[in-house]
Amino acid sequence: MLEELTQLKIARRDLLVNSLKGGGALVLGASLPIDALMAAAHDFPPARDLDPTKLSTWIAVHNDGSVTAYWGKMDMGQGVDTAIAQLVAEELDVDIDRVNTFFGDSFVAADQGGASGSTGCSNSGVALRQAAAEARMVLVDKAAVRLGVSADQLTVNNGIVSAKNDSSKRVSYGDLIGDEFSTVKLEWNGRYGNSLSLNGKAKLKDFSEYKVVGTSVGRKDIAGKMIPEIEFASHVRVEGMLHGRMIRPPSAGAKLASVDEGSIHHIRGAKVVHEKDFIGVVAENEWDAIKASRELKVNWDESDSGFPTTSEELHDYIRQAEVEKSENDTDIGDVDAAISGSSHVVQAEYEWPFQTHARMGPALGVADIQGGEGTVWTDSQKFYDGAILASKFMGVYEKDKPVPVRAIWAPGPGSYGRSDSGDGVADAIVLSIKTAAPVRVQWMRDEGHAWDPKGPASVITTRGAIDNNGNVTAYDYQLKGFTRQDVSSRENGPGETLAGHLLGHNRPKRYTMQQPANSYGFANKRHGWSTVKPLREMASPLRTSHFRDPYGPEVHFASESFIDELAYAAGVDPVAFRIKYVTDPRDSAVLKAAAELANWQPRTAPRKLKGADGTLIGTGVSYAQRNNATNAVIAEIEINPRTGKLWVRRFFVGSDYGLIINPFTLDRTIEGNLIQSLSRTLYEEVRFDRKTVLSRDWVSYPILSSLDAPEEVKITKINRPELGPKGAGEPVMRVVPAAIANAVFDATGVRIRKIPLTPERIKAALDMA
Amino acid sequence: MSKKFTLNIDGKSQVIEADPDMPLLYALMNDLGKKGPKFGCGLAQCGACTVIQDGVAIRSCVTPVSAVTGKIRTLDSIGTKENPHPVQKAFIEEEAGQCEYCINGWLMTAVAFLEENPKRTDQEIRDHLAGLQCRCGTHMAILRAVRKAADEMAG
Q1: A-chain residues within 8 Å CB-CB of B95?
Q2: Are A185 and A270 found together in one domain?
Q3: Nearest CB to B76: which of A228, A675, A713?
Q4: How far is CA A658 from the centre of its chain?
Q5: Residue A608 C-alpha, separation from nearest chain B C-alpha, in angstroms
Q6: Which of A112, A136, A191, A454 could form a disulfide with A124 if both were Cys (CB 3.0 to 4.6 A apart)?
């Protein structure tokens, strides 16, 4: 069935997409005028059999000896496709430049979950590594027969199999590969998505023999983006395509009362598309669509709209809000008894605001849904879901059956979780279905900020007890806030999208939270959470979703600030305190590595150092685990006491991500996380009033600029190849906020327990002290 | 409403038929198929749409086609893979940026800035790039790359 549908689709030959030959990235050879591109009908590659139990699904060795790894995720700019090629090249014993990683087409590569959870290397890379090892075994076995030499007497060098003791006996992979690997079976765990895993008969190469893994191979996509040849999703143009723009209400949840379609009759070809509260415009010309969206007269019923609170009052609102669901994820010993029996109890409360993904380009989607089938183009990190989502909006979805929609991913702005990209593709799908034409939707900047899903706000209350010897006897951590998934990270149902909500599809309820991830061995230890209801149930611009390291920065800002408070209360240096209580040696190793890099000076009270010009100087430490990775960060900061402005001069990082595949790219991934998290710590808060979200652009929602970038980032990377790759995409995000806040305490003696650490907030705290 | 405009883009004369108030960016993306400039904000707040007009970096998302008077250079024309502009070369070597959606703005702003005078201090570079946004947080690598390009261009 899948094959037939694909043949139909290919027969249309009317689509402006790229040749997908040979590479993962969507590369077009030359920059041509757009009408020339339109005329050159590009073909999709043929659909492939994507049975995960067949080796051919994952690896192809071609007659010229080149290799394609078919990868069911995509790279959002951290160089993961290059790392995948390194893992495959290593196991197959071929040079890295002969391996292409193919990704971004739901009919060509099996679903490994898209990008998420920092699982690109740790899960999908490990699966492809096994497939590559299996492919090598099969080829060497074939060579053994061909050469009359037993397999254990053969060696492979850049795809040439030869006898160890007679190099004249040799044959290339290209000569061996009569057919592909379709008859070779792998063990599959039966799951798609992030957790898909593969097993086989082949033994993996010992890491002591690694030649490609562990080296700084350059990112394969980089030149084609600086010399702009690579097509982004925003470049996709389809013949007959309309441009769409959405109309958003003046207050959250307002109902569409009436539309004056005549108000845009003067704009060429502009049409209104609406149903229930979903409303957009389409036009052949993009600028006409934008003008129509601005000039269309719409009446809204605002009688039941807006929010029950404002960003200014939010944390008191959370404190008082009714609890929907609560749980203790960790509950060791008897925390309450230990605290009530203690004469030295420390407690503190921390606040984190709503924050937004704010991608560099707002949501973008292209959909061509006609005749019961279709194609969607998206830059979403969950692009496979676009096909399922379309089939559900079309009403043709059947569980466990192939869907008649192809999803194509192309590069776009980084997404950092479940951003507005999933809503952009939903809008495109609905507009295409309703107009029976291909439609490209680009959101405008105010939508990209105000209507993007949000990282959740919370209040975190912590308590600890210390005995007479300065030992921690109890640790209690309680988060109260919004679930992190009003909409799922899998955007595969109408109820998970803004368009779906506007069309009346209910939002599935879920309570997904996060607890501190560390190895502190306190005798009595409790981590609990309570969720409160969303501020609006449906179609809310404050609906929450995964935002890079979901709940990680929020949770660990509180937990690692409080560990610092406990350390000082116990009269122990904050680094020594952490090393004393962590029970995992990998954790103490990263703490020691960061302290050594920073030349950490032990202290048991804030040092309140001053620079020559009167600036307040301090350092702070923080550490956290995440999915078997662990990081310690030390921030060195300066505060201008007159303005309260804080600058992080240096970051020092001790990191352990298991096996390091590509040191150069790993450094950049760590740097990106440090800076994004720094930005969220110092500047970012979504503001809203009782009507709607007020943070609507880069002025009302500022992020870090080049002026405030640190002077230096120093990183020690501990390589643990025996553990395999552990995923570096986001773990260090969560460590940064507390490192900075703890440095503020060292510099000033003042604890600031509310994010962001704005100059006004710091100045006010200094004035109070 | 729509009129014909003759624009000089990347060394070629191009005739565009558009509303006078249509921003140049839409002509570059939709009529001319340029891949460098991107839509980021439409408000001149992020720089993703930056092009160079007569040596000056401008934001094409707020520049009406009717207001274009000079010669426009886009990222599509400043270098090739075989012969990249020194700024492109440095950004490639440093692997500056991650998603690269914003990178057009950093590249073109740096090109105009350094072509005017490549002898720049680190602080001048930071100051000059302050109006650009990068959400992936790759400022460290970008600053290293611009420093490297400046040094190479200064000889």
Answers
A1: 79, 218-219, 222, 664-665, 668
A2: no
A3: A228
A4: 20
A5: 27
A6: A112
The confidence band for A111, taking pLDDT boundaries of 50, 70 and 90, is very high
Domain boundary among A177, A196, A230: A230
Is the same domain home to A221 and A239? Answer: no
- Which pair of tokens denotes residue A723? 């553990």
Residues A250 and A184 in one domain: no
Distances (CA, A) of A445 to A77, A245, A246, A363, A420: 22, 12, 12, 9, 11
Note the ipTM here: 0.98
Flag the least confident range among A178-192, A266-280, A448-462: A178-192
Gap between the Cα atoms of A155 and A766, Å rounded: 68
| Nearest by CB: B98 against A361, A672, A679 | A672
Q: Are residues A218 and A141 in the same domain?
A: yes
* CATH number, residue A249: 3.30.365.10
* Touching B: A residues 693-722, CB under 8 Å: 697-699, 703-707, 709-710, 713
Interacting residues of A588 by C-beta distance below 8 A, sequence separation 6+:
A578, A579, A582
Do A226 and A141 sit in the same domain of this protein?
Answer: yes
pLDDT in tens, A45-87: 899 999 999 999 999 999 999 999 999 999 999 999 999 999 9
Chain A CB contacts of B43 below 8 Å: 445, 697-698
Q: Do B26 and A713 touch (CB under 8 A)?
A: no
Q: Are residues A746 and A611 in the same domain?
A: yes
Per-residue model confidence as pLDDT tens digits over A628-675: 999 999 999 999 999 999 999 999 999 999 999 999 999 999 999 999
Q: What is the pLDDT of residues A571-601, one digit of tens each?
A: 999 999 999 999 999 999 999 999 999 999 9
Last residue of a domain, one of A445, A475, A501: A445
Q: What is the domain extent for residue A593?
A: 584-768
Domain count, chain A: 3
Domains by residue range for chain B, with CATH: 3-77 (3.10.20.30), 86-154 (1.10.150.120)
Chain A: nearest CA to B43, how far in angstroms? 8
The average pLDDT across A686-714 equals 98
Residues A206 and A94 in one domain: yes
Kindly report the number of other CB atoms within 10 A of residue B137's CB atom: 25
- Residues in A 483-512 with any Cβ partner in B closer than 8 A: none
Q: What phi, psi does B41 have (nearest 5°)?
A: -140, -25
Q: How many CB atoms lie within 10 A of CB A670?
A: 22
Taking CB atoms and an 8 Å limit, are A232 and B40 in contact across chains? no
Instruction: State whether residue A120 sits within 8 Å of chain B by CB.
Output: no
Q: At what angle do helices A574-581 and A552-569 cross, to 10 degrees?
A: 110
